[in-house]
Amino acid sequence: MKLGKFSIGVGDRFSHQGKAQLRAIMKANESGLEINPVWNKSNREHTYVHSEPIDTRREADEAVKALGYSGQYFVDADHINLSTVDRFIEVSDFFTLDVASFIGKDSSEEDVNAFLDSCKKYMGSFQIPGMKEPLEITKELLEEIAHKFLAATQQASDIYQYLVKAKGEGNFITEVSMDEVESPQTPVELLFILKMLADKGVPAQTIAPKFTGRFNKGVDYVGDLEQFAKEFEEDVLVLDYAVKEFGLPEELKLSVHSGSDKFSIYPIMAEIINKYDKGLHLKTAGTTWLEEVIGLAKAGGDGLALAKKIYANSLNRKDELCAPYADVIDIDGSKLPTIEEVNGWSSEQYQNALRHIPGHPEYNPNFRQLIHVAYAVAAELGSEYINMLEKYERVIGGCVEENIYERHLKLLFNL
Ligand SMILES: [Zn+2]
């Protein structure tokens, strides 16, 4: 099983927007691209909204059938590990092996030494083709990398082997993720992480490092654009080299998590992947849930009333909702509107505050980030929320499609 050159992770908390998401991708594919949709959902999301992996599979299959989509598509068990993978095995054909929590865990001296021995040829001043400057590879650096990443890559291998036993070799796509950590991995670290994965027989088709800068949920990239461009380009060159040198799958590509709404880096990524003729996987999870709330506000009447209720419940439980996402949000509490203010908003005002149009005078990224992490509030509303999604399917689906096509795919693929 091979993932196409371009693929988009379309997460969907409540499994109701599969068709709208697929419409956006099919529209982009009309221009000759072949973007593979990948419906991804993590164990954490399933737990919060009380859904099952089979719901994601059903959503994907139904959307594909309803729209007559004939290309490849996948269902991604996002951020799984050995303790959470089981319930995804039957219905998923894409697995994101999250090994972030194993970074820095102990490895035996024997393993470290074997790794150092296998890296002798890279020691010294080492030039990756295309890179402006050679990498300086010392024994100390390699030791540090070994202690940091050997256990994590071993864990990736253990999960991969577990999946091979359960599903059979070649019957699923393997992604390795290390993005949910504090500090980014450098290009040289990425090079040796890929070597370790290859040594341990993990045929990763996508890898999700933590990139430099902040990838906050649902809002634009925050960081040094030049530094990002430099590292992203070096990462692309490292992957290209790793494929040839270590024998990893030729379709190996970068996976950008929390990738929705990063409008300021889309043109940078587009230019670099074009320059080297490389692929890209971009996960856009929570942005679709935000469009559901925007769609409710747009519908007006009881839809707008429900959107206001969601905000009121979210603000009252701000600390609890934000805690699990502390590393990936930046909310300035003093810039959050009061419940009374929001209750007085028109449909337009609510949409404008929530919709991600950079520079729009009413856009409020603090409001947006709080709603982003508040999907548990909607989940608790149960059928009250789901019934509204169904009642306003057309207007909400329109918002979801427009967001993915107009604000994401067009910018990312130069359409
Ligand atoms: Zn991630």
Query: What integer value in Å does the Rg equal?
Result: 22 Å
Number of domains: 2
Give the biggest sheet. Answer: 8 strands, parallel, barrel
CATH level 1 name of the largest domain:
Alpha Beta
Strand order of the largest sheet: 1-2-3-4-7-8-9-10
Enter the CATH topology name of the largest domain.
Answer: TIM Barrel
- Bin the helical content: 40-55%
Question: Strand content of the residues, in percent?
Answer: 5-15%
Query: What class would the helix/strand composition place it in?
Result: alpha/beta
Shape: globular
User: What letter string, H or E per element, gives the SSE order?
Assistant: EHEHHEEHEEHEHEHEHEHHHHHHHHH
- Low-confidence sequence ranges: none
How many DSSP-defined strands?
A: 10
What distance lies between the first and last C-alpha atoms, to the nearest angstrom? 28 Å
CATH architectural group of the largest domain: Alpha-Beta Barrel
| Tally of alpha and pi helices | 17
Bound molecules: zinc ion
What average pLDDT do the residues reach?
97
